[in-house]
């Protein structure tokens, strides 16, 4: 309901997409709902303000990542996440106590935005920052926000505050089209997150979603790890193109830009060589997704993830992929001839 597809990702809308998008639920609608917000997040602001004067302030005050003062050190992520969580609790209380009306949707949007501001930034930093301490702090912030999100997805009182609004035809008719659509999207994410289940099953759904978040993050991070091979297994003229570490050669990418086809072949085969840990993580992730989908009433995770999208269902996706494959095959054969 509130902002996700991004906490690695946190997202329930991506059956056919990489695992990083799994398990976000409540935050997902916030991505869509955020259209009603008029303020920039720290990330957006950082990329939408013209630099004034010199871009490098080598000896000036350290302002923090993306201009956020708290993020001048890894510990700042904990402070930022705690601040967001405290604000979220206040907004949940306000949403549950406010009479149904347009203000309800605005509170939901503010709730989404307060969590997304931290989640989006942390999701980027945990992958892109060169310092391990920053990456670890950002990862913990992602997990903390993601856990809160999944709890909100199954918060009955929060759900009831929105249901009362949408059940009142007079109130719904008073909403402008955009606000009404945002409210419907929030409600949709409640429904696919298992709000209809009993208390025990709702807790199980939350636990599965959090597990999916962790597995998705682990799998995603693993895709960026380099692979290594013993030096003697590669000819000298090939291994000199890669980084050496003791008795091993480190392959950290596909080296697609190399003019030597043997170098490209070696990089491809070694970097993409099956990793037992990654395969185990992927299998557990897929199994958890399947359990979650069946728990909330879907035959497969794909059906759950595609509901409410332009594709609608896995059958439509498969038809599209098969047709695309056929068309591309025809063109490829023509080129090869």
From TrEMBL:
Keywords: Hydrolase, Metal-binding, Metalloprotease, Protease, Zinc. GO terms for cellular component: mitochondrion. Residues 255-334 form the Peptidase M3A/M3B catalytic domain. Binds 1 zinc ion. GO terms for biological process: peptide metabolic process; protein processing involved in protein targeting to mitochondrion. Its cofactor is Zn(2+). GO terms for molecular function: metal ion binding; metalloendopeptidase activity. InterPro entries: Neurolysin/TOP_dom2, Pept_M3A_M3B, Pept_M3A_M3B_dom. It comes from the Eukaryota. PANTHER family: MITOCHONDRIAL INTERMEDIATE PEPTIDASE, PROTEASE M3 THIMET OLIGOPEPTIDASE-RELATED. Belongs to the peptidase M3 family. This is Peptidase M3A/M3B catalytic domain-containing protein.
């Amino acid at each position: 309901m509130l902002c996700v597809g991004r906490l690695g990702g946190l997202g329930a809308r991506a059956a056919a997409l990489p695992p990083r998008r799994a398990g976000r639920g409540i935050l997902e609608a916030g991505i869509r709902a955020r259209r009603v917000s008029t303020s920039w997040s720290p990330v957006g602001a950082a990329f939408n303000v013209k630099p004034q004067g010199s871009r490098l302030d080598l000896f000036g005050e350290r302002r923090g990542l993306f201009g956020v003062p708290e993020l001048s050190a890894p510990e700042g992520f904990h402070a930022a996440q705690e601040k967001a969580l405290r604000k979220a609790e206040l907004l949940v209380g306000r949403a549950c106590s406010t009479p149904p009306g347009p203000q309800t949707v605005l509170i939901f949007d503010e709730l989404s935005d307060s969590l997304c501001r931290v989640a989006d930034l942390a999701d980027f930093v945990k992958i892109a920052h060169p310092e391990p301490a920053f990456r670890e702090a950002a990862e913990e912030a992602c997990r903390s926000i993601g856990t809160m999100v999944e709890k909100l997805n199954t918060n009955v009182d929060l759900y009831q505050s929105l249901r009362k609004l949408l059940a009142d035809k007079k109130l719904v008719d008073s909403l402008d089209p955009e606000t009404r659509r945002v409210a419907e999207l929030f409600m949709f994410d409640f429904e696919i997150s298992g709000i209809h289940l009993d208390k025990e099953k709702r807790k199980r759904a939350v636990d599965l979603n959090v597990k999916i978040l962790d597995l998705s993050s682990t799998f995603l991070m693993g895709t960026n790890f380099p692979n290594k091979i013993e030096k003697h297994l590669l000819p000298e003229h090939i291994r000199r193109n890669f980084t050496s570490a003791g008795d091993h050669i480190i392959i950290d990418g596909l080296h697609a830009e190399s003019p030597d086809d043997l170098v490209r072949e070696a990089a491809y085969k070694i970097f993409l060589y099956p990793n037992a840990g990654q395969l185990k993580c992927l299998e557990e992730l897929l199994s958890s997704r399947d359990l979650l989908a069946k728990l909330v009433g879907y035959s497969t995770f794909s059906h759950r993830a595609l509901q409410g999208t332009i594709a609608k269902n896995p059958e439509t996706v498969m038809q599209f992929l098969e047709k695309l494959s056929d068309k591309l095959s025809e063109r490829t054969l023509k080129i090869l001839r």
